[in-house]
Fold this protein.
Amino acid sequence: MRHLFILFFVSINLQTALAQNTIQQFKTLSDRAENTGLHTGELDSATCVQMLRIAQELKNDSLLAISYNLIGEYVSRIKGDNTAGLEYFFKAIPLAEKSNDKRRLSSIYFDMALIYFNLQNNEESVNAIRKGGENLPDKSHPLYDFMLAQYQRGMAIYFVFEKQPDSALLYAQQLMQTSRKIKSPLFEFSAGYLNAAAYAEQGDMDLAETWFKKGTALSDSLNSPYAVLRFAAIYIPFLISNHQLTDAKKQAQHLFSVGEKLDNNDLKVLGSGFMRQLYDSAHQIDSAYYYSRMEAVTNGAIFNQNNINKIQVLAFNEQIRQIDEEAKQKAEAEERRQNIQYALIALGIIIFISLFLLLSRTVIVNERLISFFAILGLLIVFEFINLLIHPWLAHFTHESPVQMLLALVAIAALLIPMHHRLEHWIKEKMVEKNKAIRFAAAKKTIRLLSDEKLEKKPSSDENK
């Protein structure tokens, strides 16, 4: 017995260790994806699939929420499919709510807001940002300030787009304080150009210029083409509108060069577009034509890449659907197996009670009790057969309610006559047993009475 206990505890500890190793593997993948892959555009589908498989294997809602969150990021940010990205985000939300993972829930809403900004739907974007703000983790959480910075950045972007500089400045300045607290160059960079955009909208060009220059100093040290893109999309138009064409050309050329270095078509097309605009306004036809051609070629490459991405996303979505379907089938099979076990246990109890009542030599059984257990046993047998054949029945009937009902009625029609015969046989046996018990009891009573008379008779003779 002691060896069995030792083996049991070793088995439990081994399973716990394996689960912890799997969770650690998932954490390594998710950290690399969130901290590096998303910012550099290097997040790949294989990592997403691996994370989802681990989460499905562990049946962990929190890990599933993280997986769908990153899958949504991959298909929207890396592959440019905003619709598919939103679908995965909506799939992640109830899982994060179920696991009470506010850090993940707020992240999902902030990621949704960025998609709505890309779709130029500012109202849906700010709704998502506010929901993210309502679901920030507790202040004691190690990532509270990181999530707070995302909320502040989102609100500042919204008010910049809505041309409400006072509100934009409020959130941009709060973002600057938070970014310095968590020592994040990326958020500090965002706070800088958002402050600049707000001051420019107010008409304070000197302060705007100061903040833009701070952003320029930080941009080269960032390994995020998306941050550089957002900065250039605000800064270069500011320079052009203020007739700082030399600086505008320098920034546009730098943007185009970074795009070539990183092989990022979004940066190249924005940089070449600004260069074409600047040379065209300067009536330098040859240079304007050159960058116009570069812009057209890059747009063509983007169009072709978008088509390739759409095909890849379709294949990726199907792969994710199959993983979800496999997990669903496993869960249904496990549930069905447990239900069959419960039905067998219940049926075993009914059979045990029936045999006990049938074979007991002392218990007299009422026919109503026999009928009750017989009906209960019939229902359990019917449910057991239904659980056992349901997958095949659903397959052959294509889950048609009418056909499945007819099949179950046919099964019931076969079971009911068998049930009546069995119940009739049991009642006959019970009646015979009851008669035998009563007869044995009567014989015992008569024998006891006879013994008493015999004991009294000698006493009477002695008195005579």
Remarks:
- The chain is about 90% helix and 0% strand.
- The mean pLDDT is 80.
- The radius of gyration is 38 Å.
